[in-house]
Amino acid sequence: MRQLRQSLPTGTFILGCLVILGLIPMVLRYINGLGAISNLSDGRPWGFWISFDLYCGVALAAGGFTLAGVVYIFGREKYHSVARPAILTAFLGYLLVILALLVDLGQPWYIWHAIIYWNIHSPLFEVAICVMTYTAVLALEFSPAVFERLSELNLPVIRRFNWRIPLRVIRAIQIPLVIAGIALSTLHQSSLGTMLLMMPQSLHPLWYTPVLPLLFLLSAIAVGPAMVIFESTLSNRVFGHELAIDVLSGLGRAIPYILGLYLLLKLVDLLVAGELGLIFTAYPINLLWWTEIIIGVVTPIILLSRPAIRQSRRGVFWSSVLVIFGLVLNRFNVSMLALGMRPGFNYFPHWMEIAISVALVADALLVIWLSYRFLHIAEHEEAVAE
Amino acid sequence: MSKGVLYDATKCIGCRACQVACKQWNELPAETTTNSGTYENPPRMSAYTFTKINFTELEHNGKFQWVFNKQQCMHCQEPGCAEACIVGALVKTEEGPVTYDEGKCIGCRYCMVACPFGIPNFEWDKPLPWIRKCTFCADRQGAGLKPACVTTCPTGALKFGNRDELIAEARRRIAEHPGTYVNHIYGENEVGGTSWLYLSPVPFEEIGFPTLPSAPVTINAERAMAAVPPVLVGVAAAMAGIYWLVQRQQKIGQKAGEEEKQKEKVK
């Protein structure tokens, strides 16, 4: 029998309250329109939801495809124990993105129009198709956890079905699934950058560059392992499954290489465009650029290059927090703070905008909590060994 | 033949009859506004106001000038909104208008962000909101009529016709009255050209026109999108290849290990 260290009554209660609080604006939205629950306007049609839920959400879910690739394609069995939690959080992350879009869209009941009316020139169309397909791929990648548990349960109807059959099917197509996941992720992680290429006039030149898709992909790959470190450290605290320091430091070791490449590409690109001077002259917006680069890129590169820091749980954890901070700031910069508004407009997110996003994150945390409680997530290795 | 409109700011008297005609034809409601101290009203375009005359007071060549300009969708030759639209609800027609199909729209508002002129607007106060913008009276044009604003204009400041003929006409006006106009037809080359063309007595940036390059806004996104199919195939092939190599190495490693064990046994 698996043991539960804590049942989290207070935590789940708070999360439940946040979810309910988020339902109020959703009801208002369908009575009085989007203007009633947001500070969005004709001058700032995309706001907090797009920046946080879509841009940060998709990037922070990159742990799913990076870890799946490391374990199943590159054959690094060492990281097997973190692959499943990573896939779970990625799956929930993508569900969250889709749920958030149902709030943000003007006509959410027509979201399926993206499947039948194709505009193959639209970067957003590509993102939509990839996100939809990849969410399905993630569901399949995660499904063994559910089938395993169902096959163990001795419940009336459920035990009649042989849950080993779907399990075998999924295991048989696992590698093609992982490859599809990586290809789809490569496409839509970068296409989120392509979407911003449509705004050459409104996105500040410190961030606008034709290589934006590549920068998006690299930063997503770098934040993948950082998110896995972050989540597993937290779930370690809550659920008490200690992860080997060897695994943590191994994940941390990869980050400086990817971030280094990212930083190099970013600087060379500014240099080639002749816009490197902007990092000093474009005051005050350059402060955002420096914060992003110093705190979110340079510091974690230095920290995670040092073996002493990689060997400490705290060191790896806080370095990952910096990487995540850098990515979140970057996505907010490109999709909100450094993106010009129509003249005469202002924007600061309405509390209900934030409440909805918080409620969605609380939803995901509740599902994670339930999954850890009822499925084999962290002790997955032992389950395989049985 | 692609249609266009030539707006001549020197002929406009700021009567705003075009604003009224537009509201009438498109059955748009009035908006409650407050007196802003100018003749400009409403303060800006919205989902319920597709066109608006801007009033600018400025000094040009040592003389006071009161210049009007008419704002509405420019109906770009290579529109950012149409390229951005996820479902292809916005389409540039051969006849000129960029049309909008609300039967397809999902309300994502990417068009609003992608428009270099800041034109498409959204019904923020409705539970079932759509995007709204100037239609270039595509319905009237289909019936052989001129756009409502052009029909109503009392001074001939708006001239409807074939786009290339209008450009020639604008050139002629500049050549005949070199002192009257700045030597610039706004919309001829901006972001790849627009169906709406402008003549002005003062530099366009001084009356609120954005300074835009002649490259379409879609150019970088198009290049990136062209890379999608090869990237998809390339990444999938690379991953399959790596998987094959890794598996092969592991098998070789296992065999080598077994052989060594056997050798040790023989010894």
Report on the structure:
The complex is a heterodimer of chains A (386) and B (267). Chain A has one domain (9-339, 354-374): Up-down Bundle (Formate dehydrogenase/DMSO reductase fold), CATH 1.20.1630.10. Chain A has 17 helices and no strands. Chain A has helices at 9-32, 34-37, 48-60, 63-73, 80-104, 113-116, 123-152, 164-172, 174-196, 212-239, 245-272, 278-281, 285-305, 307-310, 313-337, 351-374, 380-385. The radius of gyration of chain A is 21 Å and the shape is globular. With 267 residues, chain B is an alpha+beta fold. Chain B has 2 domains: 3-79 and 115-222, Alpha-Beta Plaits; 227-266. Chain B has helices at residues 17-25, 80-84, 110-114, 138-142, 148-152, 163-176, 219-226, 228-266, and strands spanning 3-8, 52-60, 63-71, 90-92, 98-100, 121-122, 131-132, 158-162, 196-199. In chain B, strands 8-1-9 form a 3-stranded mixed β-sheet, covered by helices on one side. The radius of gyration of chain B is 28 Å and the shape is elongated. At the A-B interface, helix 1, helix 2, helix 4, helix 7 and helix 9 of A face helix 2, helix 3, strand 6, helix 7 and helix 8 of B.
Q: Notable features of this structure?
A:
heterodimer; A: 386 residues; disordered C terminus; B: 267 residues; Alpha-Beta Plaits; 2 domains; 8 helices; 9 strands; 34% helix
What would you report as the Rg of chain A, rounded to the nearest angstrom?
21 Å
**How many β strands of chain B by DSSP?**
9
Unreliable residue stretches of chain B: none
Distance between the termini of chain B: 91 Å
Number of domains of chain B: 2
The CATH superfamily title of chain A: Formate dehydrogenase/DMSO reductase domain
Instruction: Give the proportion of residues in helices of chain A.
Output: over 70%
| CATH topology name of chain A | Formate dehydrogenase/DMSO reductase fold
End-to-end separation of chain A in angstroms reads 13 Å
User: Could you tell me the radius of gyration of chain B in angstroms?
Assistant: 28 Å
Give the CATH topology of the largest domain in chain B: Alpha-Beta Plaits
Proper CATH architecture of chain A: Up-down Bundle
Count of distinct structural domains of chain A? 1
Number of helices of chain B: 8
- Which oligomerization state do the chains in this entry correspond to? heterodimer
Average of pLDDT of chain A: 91
Q: Helical element count of chain A?
A: 17
The 3D shape of chain A can be described as globular
